[in-house]
Amino acid sequence: MPADAILRAENLHRYLGQGENRTHVLRGLNLSLEPGKLYAVSGPSGCGKSTLLFLLGLLDRQDEGNIWIAGELMSTASDAARTAARSRLLGFIFQFHFLLPEFTALENILLPMRKLGRLDADAMQKRALQLLSDVGLGDKGHRLAHQLSGGEQQRVAIARALANDPALLLADEPTGNLDVENSNHIFNILTELARRGHTVLVVTHNPELANRADKILRMQDGKFIA
Amino acid sequence: METHCHIAMRLLLSKKRAMLMSLSGIVFGVGLFIITQAQTAGFERFFTRTALGTDGALHIEDRANQDILGPTVIKNAAGRPEGVVSMGKDRKYVEGVPFPGPITDALRRFQNIAAVSPVLRGDAQLESNSRQMPSQVQGIDLDDFLAVSNLAQQVVFGRLDDFRANPKGVMIGSQLANRANLAVGDPVVISRADHSERYRVEAIFESGVEHIDKERVILHLPEARAVLSQPFGVTYLQASLHDNDRAAAEAPHMQEVLGQLVVPWQEREKIWLDVFHALRASSALTVSTIILISGLGMFNTLGVIVLEKSKEIAILRSMGYLRGDITRIFLLLGGLVLVAGCVLGCLLGAGGTWLVANIPLRIRGVFSTDYFVVAWSPWHYVWAIMAATIVVLLASWIPARRAARLEPGDVIRGLNL
């Protein structure tokens, strides 16, 4: 595996459920993600795509195996260290936008920045406005989530994921709920982000979109297939 | 912290109605706590002030007889024992203070003693132009007695100086004056056994204490000695203190030193003080249940917020918010309601106390007042705020912990299914 990989995973195993319902979801996955590339993970429903994404995004813990992000071993790190890594290095885009409904689009983007505290208040505001502008919503920052269309909500979610300039962007079916036009728009944004140096890992069912990735990781029964 | 506060405020506004219910519970709880405490403490303090102003902080009464120790056997006419009399710790007492001079001098050496006044007391008959009735004669040295009582403020008719200037002058209680149809300037005869003396009513006083106003006649000490046929000694010494609250603590030591029974005002008025304490505790407990119930409401509301906002909590966690941040947000949520509740509750309490203080209420008996009596004390506000703080913190802590324990992966995975 390349030494400059932004993320490395070795021998990942994950079981879900208990007793008779216990399922071996991920079966010894190995993975290495290089900077500035767009990866697509595809496969049938239930093959473990989202579970893999949650493990790589430090939202869940593997039962076996190890994960390194930016050279740091994260699989055995404390909850606080993993949370800090999420704040500094990772950005998430979910199938449903998951914007906080009580906040405006602009405030949603400011939330991760405020937590990290890397910038002062003015710089945060400028960056949030710039990100909104980058996703084509420069004039809708003051709107609450429900005042935006589905495509707009997802674009705000992308802007929010980019708020702290993460090295790795993880997207779980980001176009799953969108029409073709909006799906293309979102995928264009993700492709552009990879071109700018971000590593992007997208879980998608859409083969057409997957084909636009630098590399497709096909999964079946908890394993990558050739 | 600003971000946490911001998030907490938005979550709070997302449950406006439920939060308003909790808030109003805390406002009314805190407000009523303050009002009831102000009333009960007010009446208690007023009673204490009346008791101290009338009978002083300490009474130095019967003399301890060191020669007779152990219980005394009472015998009948045939010489057979009928019972045993014993007074506190086998110490016998001889009624009154036979040598008030040395005892007064000794008393004044105690740092906390402010003033001492001899009092001679006994029963006598009072005869006016219209009727004759029993009374209680109290012989005093006026200037000494003014230093240990509020007699000067209790005069409702006549002048204290006229009483001071007239050795044959008397002061009588307002109810006694009323019943005997006496006014300032009227003659009155006071008699006991076969001895009677004529006096002039120079002043009428009202202490507010019914039994005093109904039967007390104040004479100059030499005249009282003549009427009561007691040429030396006094019934008790009345003392005032610099710090009245230390009366009960210092009385035993004084008793040991003086060899006289020393009764502090707390012991003298124990029954009433216990009643007031019970009332205060009872009202505090009753009103605290309002705060407690609003706390339960808040606990429910916050619990619902945790359930309804678990997705948002998971998203915040995915953005880098720590478990501690989530706990803080929910505690702040409770804190915001607490602060608003306490501020409004204190305002309600202050306004309510002011209103209550203006409600006409005529009381005569244990003290005299024409309005509700209230006490303005910052401690009532402190206790109310503390009660609300404990309840709200408990009500917020459990949902906050539950929110912080949510695993973001589990929540988001559940939502994705």
Give the terminus-to-terminus CA distance of chain A.
Answer: 17 Å
What is the CA-CA span between the terminal residues of chain B? Answer: 34 Å
Helical content class of chain A: 25-40%
Q: Which range does the strand content of chain A fall in?
A: 25-35%
Number of helices of chain A: 7
What structural category arises from helix and sheet content of chain B?
Answer: alpha+beta
Give me the number of helical elements of chain B. 16
Strand order of the largest sheet of chain A: 6-7-8-3-9-10
Average pLDDT reading of chain A:
88
Biggest chain pair interface: A-B, 30 and 27 residues
The counted number of beta strands of chain B is 15
Q: Return the domain count of chain B.
A: 2
Please state how the strands of the largest beta sheet of chain B are arranged side by side: 5-6-11-8-10-9
Question: How would you characterize the largest beta sheet of chain A?
Answer: 6 strands, mixed
The overall strand count of chain A is 10
- Please tell me the overall pLDDT of chain B: 85
How much helix, percentage-wise, in residues of chain B? 55-70%
Percentage beta strand of chain B: 15-25%
Q: Nearest-angstrom radius of gyration of chain A?
A: 17 Å
- SSE series of chain A: EEEHEEHEHHHEHEHEE
Describe the fold and architecture:
The complex is a heterodimer of chains A (226) and B (417). With 226 residues, chain A is an alpha/beta fold. Chain A is 34% helix and 25% strand. In chain A, strands 6-7-8-3-9-10 form a 6-stranded mixed sheet. Chain A has a 4-stranded antiparallel sheet with strand order 2-1-4-5, with helices on one face. The two termini of chain A are 17 Å apart. Chain B has 417 residues and is an alpha+beta fold. In chain B, helix 2 (16-55) runs antiparallel to helix 12 (270-308) and helix 2 (16-55) crosses helix 14. Chain B is elongated and about 105 Å long. The two termini of chain B are 34 Å apart. The mean pLDDT of chain B is 85. The interface between A and B is medium-sized, with 30 and 27 residues.
